[in-house]
Automatic annotation (TrEMBL):
PROSITE patterns: HTH_GNTR (PS50949). Residues 1-69 form the HTH gntR-type domain. It holds the Pfam family GntR. This is FadR/GntR family transcriptional regulator. Keywords: DNA-binding, Transcription, Transcription regulation. The keyword Transcription applies. It comes from the Bacteria.
């Protein structure tokens, strides 16, 4: 592992120094191993590790290339990790999202163009009167994607998107649907949209905070008190607050 770490550091240094730039093809394995004084095995393991986090792109029969290194591409690995967390640890991701997403929403209220802000309303209007969970998830994902992109900060946008995977959105929306909280949730979408259109960053931030906090509260209840005792001594499912 130490040898592989050394190989990773040497490749990283080549990229950071500009020896290898986005889109560049790496030298052939024997040549690169000799250049870096590495064994071919340790180099191979380093390339495999860096390809997993989208720093390198291994193309069978064509060679290995440095990716675009765009923040969204690099942060994709985090979204992959988020999907593996199903218990209490997922709340840690939601706590981070509660910090970052309101900031991105406030920035969107300042940076989004009038046309982009108007498109947000069109996204919400495109949802059918009686949407399925799949339609809710797709609409929700597109709505929030446009907002965080509108922040004007690609790193912040990528981080926020990675913290809320489609898998978790689907789980939340199923809970919201079962709890008859869809209208309340969609009303919060409208409030966020209105605050952005009216260039009210602090109002947009506040609505986004309430919105994500509702998700966090529901998920916390779902994880820790999924079934609550009813007066008759049976059990009833926890009712989710609005949010996703």
């Amino acid at each position: 592992m130490a040898v592989t770490d050394e190989a990773i550091q040497k490749l990283k240094q080549m990229i950071n120094s500009g020896q290898l730039r986005p889109g560049d093809r790496l030298p052939r394995e024997p040549e690169l191993a000799a250049m870096l004084s590495l064994s071919r095995n340790s180099l191979r393991e380093a390339v495999k590790a860096l390809s997993l986090i989208n720093v390198l792109d291994v193309r069978q029969g064509d060679g290995t290339y440095v990716t675009s290194l765009h923040p969204r591409l690099l942060v994709d690995a985090m979204a992959f990790v988020v999907d593996f967390h199903h218990d209490d640890s997922v709340l840690h991701f939601l706590e981070v999202r509660r910090i970052l997403e309101p900031a991105a929403t406030a920035m969107a209220a300042t940076h989004m163009t009038d046309d982009a802000a108007a498109e947000l309303t069109k996204v919400l209007d495109a949802l059918p009167p009686d949407p399925s969970v799949e339609e809710l998830v797709a609409n929700d994902q597109e709505f929030h994607r446009r907002i965080v992109e509108g922040s004007g900060n690609p790193v912040l946008s990528s981080l926020v998107e990675s913290l809320s995977s489609r898998t978790h959105r689907a789980r939340i929306w199923r809970g919201v649907t079962q709890g008859s909280a869809v209208e309340r949730t969609l009303a919060e979408h409208r409030a966020i949209c209105q605050a952005i259109s009216q260039r009210q960053p602090e109002v947009a931030r506040s609505w986004a905070t309430v919105h994500v906090a509702g998700v966090e509260q529901w998920l916390r209840q779902s994880l820790h008190d999924d079934l609550g005792a009813d007066p008759a001594g049976g059990h009833r499912p926890a009712v989710p607050p609005a949010g996703h």
